Amino acid sequence: VQEAGRTREGEQEEKEEGVYQRGERVEGEGGAEVVVIEADELRVARQKDKGKKIEIKLGILHEGWEREAPGSARVRLKGKICWGGVMEGERFWERGSVIFHSRYDEGKVKSQLINGDGAKWIKQGKEYFPKQQSLKSSIKFCS
Q: Could you give the dihedral angle defined by the CA atoms of residues 121, 127, 129 and 134, in that order, rounded to the nearest 10 degrees?
């Protein structure tokens, strides 16, 4: 599992370097009515350093909610993709942006919502989604 994880991490880092260091484009083909981008962190106590915690950043992209079965009250996330790790906010959002653009053609996504608790690193997410920079943007920050 660790070897597979290292391989997958290397593949993801190569994609990110392509985009953010070599200027390569990643172009997805999908569209969606809405893409919800949610982020949060989990603080875990370190075993060897008493009193110190490690912060794991977690993100999920999804297209809203759908019923698990017709007539069911239970719902599940539609089209979800997760990412995360121990990293700075900038690297976290670079990864999230590459994941987003690998799946979606942003011209085919009508609305994007960034949802989080208002932490400074979560607010950085607005910088990584080009529609947000437009005056006609439909990206909103929900806290």
A: 140
